[in-house]
Amino acid sequence: MAEMDVGARIRYFRHLRGLSQEQLALQAGLNTAFLGHLERGLKSPTITTLEKLVNALNITFEELFAEGTSMPDPDRELALKQIELLIRDLSSEQLNRLVSIIQAILEFS
After folding, report:
1. How distant is the alpha carbon of residue 9 from its chain centre?
2. Distance between CA atoms of 67 and 57, rounded to whole angstroms?
3. How many CB atoms lie within 10 A of CB 93?
4. What's the pTM?
């Protein structure tokens, strides 16, 4: 069984949520420097600290520790979230036109 980099997973979910270290530390009630040490693997979190982090990140322990799942590219995930925000309020007609445009672009590529 490979060792899991919990700090990297915390950083991944923090980036996915669009939070700075300072913002996450504040929401979790942690010291910013300590969070930085956790993310770099210089410190090990207690269960209490992990609980604060999963609550602040709005994830479960299962998501944090999911074995065998690679972490998606945070830049890709952020781009998808941005697209979702941009299209959220479009009408059905606008969404259908957008789908047609995307399909045309993908066929051209």
Report:
1. 9
2. 19
3. 8
4. 0.62
Tokens of 99: 């789908």
Tell the residue number behind the tokens 């942690």, with chain if given: 30
Would you say the C-alpha torsion 94, 95, 100, 104 has a positive or negative sign? positive
Q: How far apart are CA 25 and CA 82, in angstroms?
A: 24
Residue in the block written with tokens 């210089």: 42
* pLDDT tens per residue, range 52-83: 999 999 999 988 988 655 566 667 777 888 88
Residue 100, token pair as written in the block = 């047609």
